[in-house]
UniProtKB/TrEMBL annotation:
The keyword Magnesium does not apply. This is GDP-mannose pyrophosphatase. Keywords: Hydrolase. It comes from Glaciimonas soli. PROSITE patterns: NUDIX, NUDIX_BOX.
Length: 184
């Protein structure tokens, strides 16, 4: 169907092998037969949790992100370990980062947040029936946890106070879910 757009790998080389990320440089054949290089980041994937309380508030985090030298407001999220089930990862990350557990989990969607230069995918889950507990932050992980109404989160998106793409997409999904417009 889309064969006239497809690029085909001719050669591949790992140019950086880091602890978390890997950088790949491939030679590809374009649809017209010419060759070019494609550099991209290989990422293990991650989960994003939309923790929704019965009163319509959501659980958010404030975390410093080194590449942009700033503190960001985000939904809880974390890297998927090798061979880890995505829902198991979401449950683990919610508990580790926030201390909360949930008894109602629903898959929302998969997003690809950097398609031009990474193979990263994020699996988004809605978590309800939340119960507070003790956090188990990873060594070197520092973040604040707080609650806010979905309407306020959407306002922060409009004002540019929230710029994290996974959080923006999660907020838009929550707006539709809470209004009953989108069913999971």
């Amino acid at each position: 169907m889309d064969q006239h757009l497809k690029e085909t790998q001719v050669d591949s080389a790992l140019v950086y092998d880091g602890h978390f990320l890997k950088v790949q440089r491939d030679t590809v054949a374009l649809p017209d037969g010419k060759h070019t290089a494609r550099e991209y980041i290989k990422h293990p994937g991650a989960v994003v949790i939309l923790p929704l309380f019965d009163d319509g508030t959501v659980l958010l985090e404030r975390q410093f992100r080194y590449p942009l030298n700033n503190v960001f407001i985000e939904f809880p999220a974390g890297k998927i370990d090798p061979n880890e089930d995505h829902l198991v990862c979401a449950k683990r990350e919610l508990q580790e980062e926030t201390g909360y557990t949930a008894n109602d989990w629903q898959y929302v969607c998969t997003i690809h947040n950097a398609i031009a230069y990474a193979d990263e995918h994020l699996e988004i889950f809605l978590a309800r029936g939340l119960t507070a507990g003790e956090r188990k932050l990873d060594d070197g992980e520092f973040l604040d946890v707080f609650k806010a109404p979905v309407t306020e989160v959407l306002q922060w998106v409009r004002e540019g106070k929230i710029t994290d793409v996974k959080t923006i997409i999660g907020a838009f999904w929550l707006e539709k879910i809470v209004a009953g417009q989108w069913k999971l």
